[in-house]
Design goal:
The complex is a heterodimer. By secondary structure, chain A is of the alpha/beta class. In chain A, about 60% of the residues lie in helices and about 10% in strands. In chain A, the strands form 3 sheets. In chain A, strands 2-1-3-10-4 form a 5-stranded mixed sheet. Chain A has a 3-stranded antiparallel sheet with strand order 8-5-9, sandwiched between helices. The longest helix of chain A is centred in the N-terminal third of the chain and has 35 residues. Chain B is α/β, with parallel strands linked by helices. Helices cover about 40% and strands about 25% of the residues of chain B. Classes of the chains: A alpha/beta, B alpha/beta. Chains A and B meet through α6 and α7 of A and α2, β6 and α4 of B. Bound molecules: adenosine-5'-diphosphate and magnesium ion. The site of magnesium ion (MG) has 2 residues of chain B, from α1.
Amino acid sequence: MNEHQQTLLEFMQQQADKLAVQTMQHIGLTFISLFFAVLVGLPLGIIIARKRKLSGTVLGFAGILQTIPSIALLGFMIPLLGIGPKPAIVALLLYALLPIIRNTYTGITGIDAAVKEAAMAMGMSKWQILIKVELPLAMPVILAGIRTATVINVGVATLASFIAAGGLGEFIFGGISLNNTNMILAGAIPAALLAIIFDFLLSLVQKLNFRKLKRSSYALPVVLLLLSSFYFIPTAYGSKLTAGFTPEFMGRQDGNLGLESKYGLKIHTIVISDAVMYKAAYEKELDVISGYSTDGRLKAYGLVVLNDDKGIFPPYYAAPIVRDDALKKFPELEKTLNLLSGKINDSVMTDLNYRTDYLHQSPERVAKDFLVNHKLFKPARKSNEENIVRIGSKIFGEQYILANMYSMLIKGYTNYDVSTKTGLGGTKICFDALTNDQIDFYPEYTGTGLLAILQASAKTINEVTKNKDSTYNYVQREFKKQYQISWLKPIGFNNAYALMMREQQAKSLNIKTISNLKRYLNSK
Amino acid sequence: MIKVKDISKRFGKVKAVDTISFEVQEQENLILLGTSGCGKTTTLKMLNRLIEPTSGSIFINGKNITDEQPETLRRGIGYVLQNNGLFPHYTVAENIAIVPQLLKWDKKKISDRTAELMEKLHLSSDYLHVYPNELSGGQQQRIGLARALISDPPVLLMDEPFGALDNVTRAAIHKEFKALDELKRKTIIMVTHDVQEAFELGDRICLMDQGKIVQSGTPADLLFKPTNKFVKDFLKDQRLQLEFKAMRLLDIWNLLPNHHKETHTSPLSAHTDLWTALEHFKFTDSETVCISKDKNELKTVGFEQLMSAFNQYKNKQGHE
Ligand SMILES: Nc1ncnc2c1ncn2[C@@H]1O[C@H](COP(=O)(O)OP(=O)(O)O)[C@@H](O)[C@H]1O
Ligand SMILES: [Mg+2]
């Protein structure tokens, strides 16, 4: 880390193009979904204001929609609508629905009964009453609902990046996985600003008096459509194949950046979360994805790894990393954790992952089966409550399996008690938990240590990634020096980044290596 | 002109209106009088189909009102409510122009007619472009009246139109109401719970209780020929004043002494009510008042002579 530390401003300048595209996409997503939410919510609100018996059901249902965690809602959308903007817009729409329906309903039912009666008594039809009396009088309340929905949508739209719909979430979540604060802020600050600006602008509209409101209510749909169209501006793009890369992969030297600089690979790329990427490749929504070479879904979805013939993906050998003071506190720990060393190679790990990810066996069962088969399993001993080893893991299956194996080993071979904190998000969260004494150890990968945590210079990376031992030695030395953290012996498998394609497609296009892929893309 | 036949309205178990019938002649002022909850509003709203009766039928000019589109029917009937129901998002001018807009009048016709009404209702044209909430209660009520009158509908329905006003404003509006030529041409059905108002403005009164009409007739009928104790009790509190208002000088003409003396003041018509004649003594200092019947018969009487004729008249009624 002897390089000049990049400032936020420098980062934003350097990434100005991406920032502009993401901001436009963000605004576009927010307002397309808002537009449709108004289109659906306003009539629904009017209907339940007319038939009040329905109001409980409709408002209750919209309320339940809002309590579904955003990620889960996005997840539900994928089987129905695939990936990309469609499911994101639908999910955002569903979130925006409640405030719009509810405010339309309260706005209309709150109108002075005498005014409605007078309107009727003068011979206005139901439709005329709606257009000339109810909607104008309810408008300030309806606008308040739209304002709430807008702010919600700006926030939730950050999650659109999980399903390849773009937006500022690409920077935010890319930054979190890359441990890059500038990147996080470059996404988070504009997102917050958007929320504040739109909230402020809508508060101005809300305060307009009736006369001005009448005029501006014609302008509103136009503005909405205009803002919505932002989303489509940057996506005019044509390519034979479509790649889906995780936000993390997009920003890494040993990821998309390396693919561009070393292979000169240019492919139409969308950003997508790891959780849905494999399935999307299987369903032919994507052709090339960035995955992990030991991922169980590789086997489940019939994908093949493309050979990294220019060696841009550094080795990612897994090993437990432990805080030095924990090693002292638990003298038995190192020996116990090393029981696993050399026991799991790539294909074994892929198979274990396949069982959890695809066969949906519990990580605990998969871990136990493995230990029993390799005669490593011992029943839990009586534990000594005061010495609790805290195990961490990142939020994916392989880490859960390893954490379970370690837990069983510690219980079987020592008198320590164990607590597991699994699902600690990405690298940054896990590593921070370790340095802040929230956990004692977790399984990490040499490549991640080198690139994401140590953020080594390009020169160092070039030097030490030539083979797996030099990488391991380098991170072991630096972690000791910088963080007082020890790398124990590698477990055996190399969970490196890899590009993968559907086996069938790769075969028919005769693509075996990344260079093959590039040649195919360049051919007319 | 309006014929209501055996109409009833139930709200669930509540019989809001129970088989009532009445008729209103052209240009007549009929008052629906009764305590709160007796079914007056419900009755009124059935006339312009804001409420549909459970049974019975209503005819206007011989035509069953259910034969017409409710919207068309309503555009031909003026409606004034207690809480005026002005559109808060419309200016005064826009509020008044609602029905003409629905009837697709041209702009010139609307603005001419609006100006005419504003003048008749003593409203300054400065108010045309303000919003209702900037006006006083009395002014709002007049705008409500203007809105109902603009298309000059032959029938006017009024639900406690002056109920929200203070006493002073109300008295002033009553006076204007009686003087307004627009209203003289109209068949009016007005709802009120205020006995005085009913006697002051009504040609005939329907006294209602628990969804039924207890008695209907002229103010004098109700006072001097009550059909039962309910009617008597209902009018008890303000009886004397009501009697003075209900009785015209003509009714006691024969009981007044045949005496005439020339004065400078112009004579009162024999169609004047007794109350006004008595007020004459209060506002002018003279001890006598001159009354004329059919332009040529004149009588000059004092306060005592008026009171004695009144008492004789009442005694006679009592013995009938
Ligand atoms: N929409 C309604 N639903 C149920 N009951 C009603 C409704 N409107 C009026 N009522 C009942 O009908 C009765 C007569 O009401 P209303 O005609 O408003 O009386 P008034 O105008 O004489 O005060 C009252 O008991 C009232 O509670
Ligand atoms: Mg009423």
